[in-house]
Structures are given as structure tokens and as C-alpha cells.
Protein 1
Amino acid sequence: MTDEHVPHLPAIDTTVPHSARVWNWALGGKDHFEPDRLLGEHLLKHYPEALNVARASREFLGRAVKALAVEEGVRQFLDIGTGLPTADNTHEVAQRYAPDARIVYVDNDPLILLHARALLTSNPQGATDYVQADVQDPDTVLEEAARTLDFEKPVALMLLSMLGHIDPDEAALLVQEYTRRLPSGSFLATCDSIDAPEMIKLNEDYAASGAVPYICRSEAQLAATADGLEILPPGVVALNTWRPEGPLEPTYQWGLLARKP
Ligand SMILES: C[S@@+](CC[C@H](N)C(=O)[O-])C[C@H]1O[C@@H](n2cnc3c(N)ncnc32)[C@H](O)[C@@H]1O
């Protein structure tokens, strides 16, 4: 059978590095192609202190989802810019502490759609769903997520290491648009690469490879995503200092957890 006979087969460009696949390489995964590996190896060689951002982000996911499920009683999660499935995806962490948790994953990369089955392994008491959509289209994201999530009840919006694909000022307005549409008691968890010189240079090399550029942000730009929300302790900080449960390497990945009053 040729591709033209396969309905809805997504087009996947394997000739240039791609965000989710380079990330997967950095996490020690297996879902990447040669251009992703070559770029990863280049970045590791030239910026050895910076490439732990992927691991720092996933570890933050674990601690933030645990805090949301256990301390805040959150049972609904909207994880946009999910990335390729790896160990401890959002539903696995959430349902470990709250078996009835409901999770909707959203990504615009067709490769994630192909791997989405690994994200749909919900505990029977809860639910998971996958939506192929662009974060910049909140109408579609929220409409499709409403198949699984009840938007009358609090939702944790997760935007982890993905807003750097969008202009920083537009990103803050976009997140505010989402949180404006979520009920009181909802949460925002977000993290991104901070604008340290080494991280800016790393992302210049990243963009020069032909990958969709990733834009670092200042602490103020990161905090602006939570405008109108209450940022919870310890604030907008490097992820290794965000409620660590053991010693963690210093990282240029910063983040925050905030609650909608
Ligand atoms: C660096 S990965 C981060 C994955 C995961 N959130 C994590 O922290 O491990 C960025 C992800 O965002 C997705 N992404 C990029 N631009 C997007 C957009 N406009 N809408 C939805 N997803 C997007 C990419 O496809 C990729 O899977």
C-alpha cells in the first residue's frame, strides 16, 4: 500500500532536527533520527552544562504533578506540548496519587500522534485523551479537551518547555487567554529556558540546524505567563531549586506553579 492510500497518515520530516525528537534524544529515548542525534551531540559537546534542561523539565513535571494531585487535590490536567511519551508521563504520575485523574494531552507534531497509544493507557477509574492541535488555537484545544475534562471544575494547565516555540510576549498573552477561560481554583505549571548567555548561544546553534527556533525568556517574561494568578512558593526559580526532593544539578530551565484565585 502506498502512502496515498493510508488515510490521515501524517507527514513527518526526518531531514531536519525536530523539537520532540531532540528532546527524546536528550532524555536517552529511542524515538529520534540522525539529524536529531547529530544536533544533540553537537549541543552536548559545546554546551555540556546546558543540555540537562530536558531532564530537569521532566523531573519538574513529576514534582509539580505530584504536588497538584496530593496537596491541591487536582484531578484534571491539560498537558499542551506533551512531547514523545517517555517514563513518567503526566497521567502515570497523576494516577499514581489520584487513580481517578483525567488527563488530556495536546501536541501539534504528527509524530506524537503516531506514539499517542502510550499516552492512552489510563487507569480505568480515570481517563486520558490525545488531541492533535496547535497551542495557538485555544478554541480547538479547549473544545476538544472538553470531551474528557469538565471545565466547570479546576484544571491544571501544563505548558512545559514548549512556549519557547512562540514569541515571549505573545506567549504570555496566550497563556493568559487560557487561564482566563479556566475556572477559579485552576493551576498553571510552566517552565522554559532562561536567557542565560550559554542558553542563548545553544538555541542559536539549535535554530541554525534548521529546527524550529526555541526562544529563551527572561524571568519577567516567564512570570508574565502567570499574570492574574497567585505564584506559589518558591516562586519563579531554577527547576533544581523548585521543591527538590533530593540533590539536583543546577539548570538553566526555570519554572513556576500558580493558582487562579
Ligand atoms: C521540548 S518538547 C517538551 C515536551 C514535554 N512538555 C516535556 O517537558 O518533556 C516541546 C513539545 O512542544 C510541541 N510543540 C511545539 N510547538 C507547538 C505548538 N505550536 N502547539 C502544540 N505543541 C507544540 C513539540 O511538538 C514538542 O513535542
Protein 2
Amino acid sequence: MISPRMLLALTLSAALVAGCGATDDSAEAPGKEQKKATAKAVPPGCDEAGNDFASDVKLARCLTERFWAKQFTAAGGTYQPIKRFVAYDGTNGPSCGGEKAEPENAFYCSDGHFIAYDAEWMRSMYDQMGDGAVYVVIPHEFGHAVQAQLESGFEYNVEQELQADCYAGATLGGLIADEQIQAEEGDDEELFANLEAVGDPTDAWWEPDAHGTPEKRQEAFATGFDKGVDAC
Ligand SMILES: [Zn+2]
């Protein structure tokens, strides 16, 4: 059996980022390029260079929302952008429906339609494991924002979490296929290392806070990456 890691490695051979900037379409014919640049303004954030933590965070947010806007439009719907994107530090995060934000976490809150993340926590993963941290965590949380809009129902929390991982994989796969971001040597390993770091220590999938084991999370991500949103 091919492991999810193999699947991702095969198609990705080398994932993520590098020059994902304002000049996304610049490889095309010069005449066409100019026309495009004036016809379509780049949303703020999507023109980030993605060369440091702060820039990658903005870029990941913008590209992920642009990806979903396109998906919703293609399906005849309208994607609702999140209302706020809140960086917090340890214990000073925004509460969600009366519940306090936890340190070392990122979350989507349907009550207010916002995403918040412990910036120091995410930055430490970024420093340790590379930009894959940002491109796993942020698209995952946007996956929850999409679930809220689709009013997806789940019997178990772990199902909801694994679908968000699948959506995150689909987002990255879509962005790479669309040449919004570029693959770099070793990025597939980074993504998997990040999923491993956020996986549950045991397979108690029935627990209300279960997210899935590292293997399950990697598998879900790879499914989305290889097969797209519909496979999630
Ligand atoms: Zn989640």
C-alpha cells in the first residue's frame, strides 16, 4: 500500500512557496501581462513576497480566501470572507462564544466569523519546521470557516477536523496547480512534519476534542491535495 506520505511526495515532489508574489501571471506573454495587471487588482496580502513569517501569514490568508472564493463561485455560491484575522499572544486571545482562547492554538469562531491564532506559537513552528507551518494551520482554519458556510454537519469532532485537513490539502494543491504558489524541494516533508506535530497522541477518535492521529491527518491532507475539494 502506498502511504499518504508517498502519495504526496509523488505528486508534490517538492512543494510550496518561493516567489509567490504580485507577478503571479508574469510568465505569460508580455502584452497580456500588462492588461491583466490593470484589469484586476491584486487583493491586499496576495501580493506579499512570502519571504518571512509575517509575510507568509498574510499571503496564506489571502490566497486561501481567493481559492475558496473561486470554488464557491464555480459552484454558484458566494464565499463570505472572514470578518477578522486576529493574532494573539498566549492568553490574550479573543474569546469565542464565551470561551476563552487557548495559548498555542489557532481557531475559527463561527460566532463572529473570525480566525484567531497564537502568533508566537505559530512563529515557533515556522522557525523550527519552515513555512509549511503557516500553510497547514491557516488553510485548516479556513476549512472550518467553509464548513460553517456550507453548514456541514458531523457526528464526531474528528470528522470535522479531518475534513478541514482535507480542505487544507485541496487548497494547497489548487494553489500550486494554479501557479499561485510554487513548490520547493522538501516542502512535502515540512507539511507532513507540521501535521505530525498537531496530531493527537492517541487514536481516541470519539473524544470531543479529537483531531485525528498524525497518520490520519496526513492522509486527509494528501487526499485533498491529490484529488481536490470534492474528495473531502
Ligand atoms: Zn480544526
